[in-house]
Amino acid sequence: MSWQLSVDFGTTYTVAAVSTGDGPPEVLEIDGYNRMPSLVMLHPEGRLLAGRAAVNEAGRYPERVERTPKRYVGVTEHLPLGGEMVPVTDAVAAVLERVVVEARRRHNGTFPERLALTHPARWTEGPLECLKAAAVAAGLPAAYMVPEPVAAALAYTEVHLSHGDHVAVYDLGGGTFDTAVLRRERQGFVVAAAPGGNPHLGGEVFDERLLNLLGRQLAEVDGARWEALSAPPDRRWARAHADFLTQVRTAKEQLSDRVDATLYVSAYDRDLLVTREEFESLIRVDLAGSVAELLRTVRSAGRAPEDLAAVYLTGGSSRIPLAAGLVHEHLRQMPATRGDPKSVVALGAIRALTPARADTPPPPASSVNGTVHSGPRPVVLPPMPNFLVPAIISTILCCVPTGVVAIVHAAQVRGKQSAGDIAGAQDSLKKAKAWTWASVGLGVLVALFYLVAMLSDPYQY
C-alpha cells in the first residue's frame, strides 16, 4: 500500500510523520522516540552518524559533533567536524537518511509515494535547494516544500475557519523563533505578510540561561571542579559536560509540567533543585520580546489582534507555560496548542500533500526539481512596503540631504527581502521612515523660520 512521509528538519530536533492510504497521519517513532536529535557527528572512521547514534558518541568525540546543522543551510557550503570540512548537504542528508531508514522499515522497505519537507517561511532559493539536494542524496523522491507556519496551521485547522480568516503562528523552537500571519484560502493557507522572528532565540538560549544559573551555584561549592566541567580538559570531563547539559535540558523540559525539577550532577555527586519561578525569571525578557515580535508581524499584515481567528503555538519551546501566558495577555485570546507542539508541523505537512475532502479539487501543480507534481501552491511572500515614495516627496519638498538618506534606505528594503534578510529589510524600512520624517520635520522648521522672519520684517521680503 502506498504511503506518504513528511519531515520537519528542525534546528535541534527532527520530527517525521507518515500516513498510509486514507488513514490519519501519525508521528514516526525513531529509536523509540517521537523526535530525533538533529545532531550529526563525523566518526573517526569517516562515517557520518545522525540522531541517537551520534548522541551516544558525542561525549567521546565532542570536537566531531555539530548539534545544529540546520544553522549552516544556505549560509555556507561546508561545516567543520573534527578538523575536516563536511558538505552541509551531506550532513543534512545523514539526518534525513536516518528518518528514511526507519520509515521504510515500517513499510516493508518501500519508498514513500509522496514527500513533504518543511522549511522556515523566510528561506529563499539557496537554502531550499540545499534541503532538496539533501533529500535526493538520502534517496527520497522529489519533495513538496511546505513553509513551517503553513504546515502548523494545517495541523490545527478545523471547519471553524472560513475563507479569508487570518491566523497567527508563534513558532518557538530549539534554535530559532518565527512568526507569521496566514490567510485562509479555499485549499489551504497563504502567507499574508512578510514573516518575522529571531534566528537566535530558542530553547538553546534558555538552556544556556539555566546552565549559567546552576553553574554559579556549583562554582560556589568547588570552583576548580566547575572550571573543568564547563571547559573540559580531557575526554572524561567532556563526557561529564555532555551529561550535565543533558540534565539541564531535561530539567528545563520538566518545568513545563511541574513547578520544580531536580537534576543530578555526577561530577559533583549531588542534586540541584530549580523552580519554575527561577527559570521564568531568567527568560521572561526573551519571551516578552518574542510576543512583541508576534504583535509587530500581525500589524505588518494590516491586522489587529482582535482580527485574528486563532493564534497557533508550535515548536518545542512553546510548551513553556509563560510563553502561552504572555501571548494570551497581549493578544487577548487563548492560543491553541497541543500536548507535543513539536509534532504539529510534521503532522500538518502530511495534510498539505492531499486534499482534506474527497470532493475538493486537487491543488494546482507545482514544479520541484524539474518534475511537475500535483501539490500545494508555492507560497510567495508579498513585497514589503519600502516607503520610497514618501522619501522622494520629502526630498523634493522638504530637505534634500536627509531625504537622500531616506531614499537610500528605502531602496534597500526589497533587495534585502529578496535575499532572505528579513531582519535587514525591516531595519532599512525603519531607517527610511525615520529619515523621511526627519526630512519633513526640517522642512517644516525651515518654513516656520521663514514665515516668522517675513512677518517680523515684511518690507525686507
**Do you know the CATH architecture of the domain at 3-158 and 337-374?**
2-Layer Sandwich
Which structural class is indicated by helix and strand composition?
alpha+beta
Mean pLDDT: 85
Give the CATH superfamily of the domain at 3-158 and 337-374: ATPase, nucleotide binding domain
Treating each run of at least 4 consecutive H or I residues as one helix, how many helices?
13
Please bin the fraction of helical residues.
40-55%
Low-confidence stretches: 356-382
| Assembly classification | single chain
Strand content: 15-25%
User: How many strands, which pairing sense, and closed or not: the largest β-sheet?
Assistant: 6 strands, mixed
> How many E-type strands?
20
Q: Quick one: CATH class of the domain at 3-158 and 337-374? A: Alpha Beta
Computed Rg = 26 Å
Cα distance spanning the termini: 91 Å
Description:
This protein is α+β, with helices and mostly antiparallel strands. Among the domains are: 194 residues, Nucleotidyltransferase, domain 5, CATH 3.30.420.40; 73 residues.
Could you outline the blueprint of secondary structure elements for this entry?
Blueprint (H helix, E strand, L loop, with lengths): L2 E7 L3 E8 L5 E2 L8 E2 L2 E3 L5 E3 L1 H7 L6 E2 L11 E4 L2 E4 H18 L8 E6 L5 H13 L5 E5 H9 L9 E7 L4 E9 L2 E4 L4 E3 L4 H19 L1 H8 L4 H20 L5 E6 L4 E6 H25 L9 E5 L6 H11 L12 H10 L11 E4 L2 E4 L13 H10 L2 H19 L3 H35 L5
Parallel strand pairs: 1-10, 10-11, 12-18
Antiparallel strand pairs: 1-2, 2-3, 2-4, 5-6, 5-7, 8-9, 12-13, 13-14, 13-15, 16-17, 19-20
Helix pairs in contact: 2-3, 4-10, 5-6, 5-7, 8-9, 11-12, 11-13, 12-13
